[in-house]
Amino acid sequence: MSAELNTVPKGIAGPSNFLDERLGGASFLKRNMRKIFPDHWSFLLGEIALYSFIILLLTGTFLTFWFKPSMAEVVYDGSYAPLRGVMMSQAYASSLEISFDVRGGLLMRQMHHWAALLFVAGMMVHALRVFFTGAYRKPRELNWIIGVLLLTLALAEGLTGYSLPDDLLSGAGLRITEGVAISLPLVGTYITFFLFGGEYPGEDVVSRFYALHILLIPGIILALVTAHMVLMWVQKHTQMPGKARSNKNVVGAPFYPAFMAKAGAYFLFTLAVVSGLATFTQINPIWLFGPYTPADVSAGSQPDFYMGFLEGALRLMPAWEINLFGASHAGTLPLSVIIPALVPMGIIMTGLALYPFIERWVTGDHREHHVADRPRNNPHRTSIGMSAIAFYGVLWLLGANDEISAFFHISLNWTTYAGRVLVFAAPALAYMITYRICLGLQRSDAAVTGHGVESGVIKRLPHGEYIEVHTPPAEDIQAHVKGKEPVAMLPVAEDTEGIPPKGMRGPLGKLRARMSKAYGGEKIPLESEHGHGHDEEEPAAIGSGGGEDRGSLRH
């Protein structure tokens, strides 16, 4: 190891000595400031969400200085002439004041809104990266559950913040929220009265949502983000397969100065993107919608993208209900609201939270994993993930079925009927297509390791056959491909007397064994494309010269 690598940078040595002389913290600081972080572009996806959350805290603090969380009615006399003399809530009037009278207020409002969208989108993409690469496996199951909770809380945070301006668009969303809450069996009425302070719309919903939005939910999110980061720090970061990478080491750059410089630059880049969107791209122009009144609703109302799946589920669901006591409203279960409100969200979030434990039960894999999988190398997991994306995507898309119908001149009924079919057919189709694509990519990897890569050089053999020379892949590419491990599966072999092992003898055990056999194992071994033997420049045949195939390689 060179002297430069053994020398502690002055930026670490100075503070370390200062803390050590007073607190005895030199070893702690040196160890953590030199912690190694792997380098891969996909690891930055989670940082987008983190930096967006920081922007949300900063811009939200600015907005709290002028926003008035009250539904008390006032007569507007501000700068926006079209609404002067109109009765509105103080919440809506203060939102207009922020937009038109506070210096930089509209910029802060739009930065806050764009950062909220980027926060949720970043968390979604980060969760997909973790899922598809299997980074949720032991010892990171607890961190995965924290991530699922963070995503759920982010949706609740967005819902409460979206309703605060008390404009006509957010009021329409609030009306849907009230309908969903009151439809819940047994607890629906209590939840509705707790949120609205009485009959809808009440006088307290904005102030109560405000308390949830700026205190309770952000506090929980901040605590969970801290726990998420601490666990990641302690457990060390996963890394992609490659040269000299294993479950016992981390290959990358130190936290200081390399990672800190990169993270700081990436935060500034994220801030620049959010600022650019807020400056040049209008979002949520509340002055065009007007104040909310329960008797009005605007045509073409659409929620923010992260709540689109709930809107789509409500639009697709048939008007079903169950009357337990005849026509009495006390015994009515509105399935047309309960199922869309609970089932899609329950399937996705519960499935995400339980998946690490279900996979471990199916495969029997209790090992620690610090090297991430390539998605193609676990085709069933990747197919399940794409099925969930297709399910969410259909619901999200059909949340705008009226816009689709109007723009493409298609019957609104037919778009709804098509959505009811696609919500079941699309996930199944996505599963089958993704599985075949994963197997095809595995065969491609096997061909690369078995035959090498095409060089573009054409040779003619003495007997007249034309062939293309293949060369071995680059060392880093070969190491990346050969980092593949077979998906673990249970030992289900029977003993000499034909008796299955203990735990595999009952109906549940037999089901587990069948699931493990289908889910685990090696689908396309890398050696499956190896051939008959050749030197490094053995070519692959591209023209028929008769006889056997001369294009295979053997290592």
Textual characterization of the structure:
Its cofactor is heme. InterPro entries: Cyt_b/b6_N, Cytb/b6-like_sf, Di-haem_cyt_TM. The chain crosses the membrane at residues 48-67, 113-132, 144-164, 176-197, 209-234, 255-280, 337-358, 417-435. This protein is mainly alpha-helical. It is 58% helix and 6% strand. It has 19 helices and 9 strands. The chain has a 3-stranded antiparallel β-sheet with strand order 7-8-9. It has a two-stranded antiparallel ribbon with strand order 1-4. A two-stranded antiparallel ribbon has the order 2-3. Strand 7 and strand 8 form a beta hairpin. Helix 6 runs antiparallel to helix 7 (141-163) and helix 15 packs antiparallel against helix 17. The radius of gyration is 29 Å and the shape is globular.
Oligomer: single chain
> In percent, how much strand structure appears in the residues?
5-15%
Radius of gyration from CA coordinates: 29 Å
Overall shape: it is globular
* Arithmetic mean pLDDT: 86
